[in-house]
Amino acid sequence: MTLEKERSAVASLSRRIAPNLITLVILPAITLVLWLYGKRSLAMFNYTPWLFVAQAFGLLAATFLSVNFIFTTRLKIIRKMFGGLQEVYKLHRVIGVLSVTCATLHFLSFLVHSIYFPGLLDFYLIPGDDWSMNFARAALLLFLVLIGLTFIRKIPYHIWKYSHQFMGLAFLLAMAHVLTINSDIMKSMA
Hints:
By secondary structure, this protein is mainly alpha-helical. The chain has helices at residues 3-38, 44-47, 49-71, 76-82, 85-116, 120-125, 131-150, 157-164, 167-180, 184-189. Helix 1 packs across helix 3 and helix 5 (85-116) packs across helix 7 (131-150). The longest helix is centred in the first third of the chain and has 36 residues, at 3-38. The chain is globular. The termini are far apart.
């Protein structure tokens, strides 16, 4: 291989890796750094570490969900940046799994947190008057069912495609949770 072909191959590889790196590492890292910077005090980590972990996973889930929502637009600039629609679809799948994994860990971290604050277990598990929590439960349940269908290889494509359209509803429920939750994050934005 000539030097010019090697340089071209390296340039091509770096053009494909850079957007993935930005999407999978840099955007989430910026989100977490800004979140930590916005905290009045990190002392809460000492006495409620699982609440801290739950918030971090929640922010990561919201970040990944938002990026995936942008990917669904199939904008020409995004297709070009990631090397074509097929590459965008591959990353969309990875980010979808990451977002639902983070959302699940967000929920599970709250359950672990409730071990130390027993009255909270019912609040996290049982639907009630707190619509923000109801939005969260519904979004997570819908995401888990829809992601589960995505990994079942035996269902016909047209059924999978139809079910995948409900991801938009799950996304809206998740964003309703994000925008209505009574947390220190939302209080700091007010």
